[in-house]
Automatic annotation (TrEMBL):
Belongs to the class-III pyridoxal-phosphate-dependent aminotransferase family. Pfam families: Aminotran_3 (PF00202). This is Acetylornithine aminotransferase. The keyword Transferase applies.
Length: 428
């Protein structure tokens, strides 16, 4: 690491503490971004295969222009009439099923999920929340307590129950998709029964239907639908966290849940919504929004301000005009076939999983169980970083390479990723 970066790191430790997270053994000191490329302080270029926030590409000129134009015209808190946010809310809701016909805005995914929980509890009269046993939905006190994918000082609350999400690669044990769906959905039944036994009424099932933090397991047809039916029969709502899955990444749909037949009651949004500008929110049935709004007098100073609305609209414009869903499908299929070829050449790759432009490689040890290889995954992401490609890792064993580039990723970019990955896998 250059001497200047050492100095900056020490200053950061001193002023921000040693535990403010940083990626890689040698942290990357970034100064500029453009499209799928990031540049460090020495001018070295990195291919960004990690970041979903800049979904239409780093510093997309149309988004930057929309932001600057609105910032020099008007920016103000959200309790005045402004056409920008109404236009955006109408456009956004039109991308969902007709039952999801109203929007509320926040600045972060955390706030969106917190608001969704409050809304679900208010409209159901219940308090019980079911989450997956390896999930993250935000950093407020309630959501930290519900976090199951990393340690938090807050214990899992009495109102919460965890369910395990099926991963066909590790959980199949000779079972068909139907059996897998049924066996794992029965955990939702048990969670509901256990709440009821403790006098807790279920308010919501809160999941990301791509199960990104869980490691992007292959979808088990019918599982989400069964889980949602069980929760609804017990009086709870289905809250779908689209903070990672949303905005066309799957290529086959604008939203992750649209790959299933389950229509959520509340959808939460964030990360890619503003391409890096902090705008997030939720979409729900107008009846829920009106009922909750009537009781809670909810407002958010910055959530959905005129600049955020202009930026979020520009992001939708680019997704539409550049047909980024089609790009996710085409380039996604191209990368997938390259990853399958790498699996055939490198025994350390136990399993390839993907949804559009979201990929996971399950790295395994050379043993009979194909046991997870977190140390190899850690080494590999550092080898990739040294070779100028940024990726990360996920999953309950921290052994699944996480690759989730901006949606403008091209086949040429894919070739760089695949060649570098081939080289780094060989160097492991
Ligand atoms: C699935 C999911 N939900 C919610 C959040 C929280 O979003 P934010 O960091 O904007 O509060 C995250 C952040 O990583 C996430 O991955």
């Amino acid at each position: 690491m250059p001497a200047d970066d050492h100095h900056l790191l020490e200053r950061r430790y001193r002023i921000m503490g040693r535990n403010a997270p940083l990626f890689y053994d040698k942290p990357v000191h970034l100064v500029r971004g453009e499209g799928v490329w990031l540049y460090d302080a020495d001018g070295k270029r990195y291919l960004d295969v990690y970041n979903n926030v800049p979904c239409v590409g780093h510093c997309h000129p149309q988004v930057v222009e929309a932001l600057a134009r609105q910032a020099e015209t008007l920016n103000i808190h959200t309790r005045y009439l402004h056409e920008g946010i109404v236009n955006y809310a109408e456009r956004l809701c039109a991308t969902f099923a007709p039952s999801l016909d109203a929007a509320m805005f926040t600045c972060t995914g955390t706030e969106a999920n917190e608001l969704a929980l409050r809304m679900a509890r208010y409209v159901t009269g219940g308090t019980g929340i079911i989450v997956s046993d390896f999930s993250y939905h935000g950093n407020s006190e309630t959501l930290a307590a519900l976090t199951t994918c990393s340690p938090t000082p807050e214990p899992l609350p009495a109102f919460a129950r965890q369910i395990q999400i099926p991963d066909p690669y590790r959980d199949r044990q000779g079972r068909s998709d139907e059996e897998l769906a049924r066996v794992f959905a029965s955990q939702v039944e048990q969670a509901v029964r256990s709440m009821q036994a403790d006098g807790i009424r279920p308010a919501a099932l809160l999941i990301d239907t791509l199960f990104a933090n869980e490691g992007l397991p292959d979808r088990v047809p019918g599982y989400v639908e069964q889980a949602v039916r069980i929760v609804r029969e017990a009086g709870g709502l289905f809250i779908c966290d689209e903070v990672q899955a949303g905005f066309a990444r799957t290529g086959d749909a604008m939203w992750g849940h649209q790959l299933t037949d389950a229509v959520p009651d509340i959808v939460t949004l964030g990360k890619p919504m503003g391409n890096g500008h902090p705008v997030a929110g939720l979409v729900a049935a107008r009846a829920h929004v009106d009922a909750f709004g009537g009781a809670a007098n909810y407002f958010n100073t910055f959530g959905g301000n005129p600049v955020s609305a202009a930026v979020a609209s520009a992001v939708l414009d680019v997704i539409e005009t550049e047909d980024l869903a089609a790009n996710c499908r085409n380039v996604g299929a191209y990368v997938r076939s390259g990853l399958d070829q790498l699996k055939a050449r490198h025994p350390v790759v136990g399993n390839v999983r993907s949804q559009g432009l979201f990929f996971g490689l399950d790295l395994v040890n050379d043993d009979a169980q194909n046991s997870p290889a977190p140390d190899k995954a850690k080494r590999l992401i550092n080898l990739m970083r040294d070779r100028g490609v940024l990726i990360s890792r996920i999953g309950r064993h921290d052994n699944i390479l996480k690759m989730r580039p901006p949606l403008v990723f091209s086949k040429e970019n894919a070739d760089v990723l695949l060649t570098t990955l081939d080289d780094a896998l060989a160097a492991l």
